[in-house]
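Appendix B. One record, verbatim.
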Amino acid sequence: MQDLITSKNVAEWFEKRHDAVLRDIRELLCTEVFRENNYKRVESWTKNSKRTYYITMTVKGFLFLTLGYTGARLAQRKEFYLEQFTKESEVREMSEVTEKYLGRLEEELYCLETKLIALNKALKDHVVFATIPTEQQELLRQQYGIMVAYKNILTERIQLLTKEDQ
């Protein structure tokens, strides 16, 4: 489950007793599948060595539970938490996009390095290179220079992206 929130958080945020929140979760009119996917019981111990529990929930579970809470003050709190979850979700989505972009850059860099190795080998093989017309030799040298510059740009982008993630 992602974005875990606990029943203790809900009790604190909505100024309710924890046992009341637990009761509200038990009494939710939802399917068992929804309950299993969005709520998990966690056993714990109190300071007095008493066995107790709390519930962890996903954002969906949190919303399903708290959208039933009413009152002006609670409405403001729900609005605030919905805004926070939306921001966190947007950040996570941006992170996923960045990871995909980074993967594509690394793939492109690998292909480019492979081509550079082959082109460099051809440039250094004087027997083969001598059979190519002079104009094409110059174009190959220019192409090699451009490819090296592009490789440096890709490497720099990858370094910047990986530095941002840390």
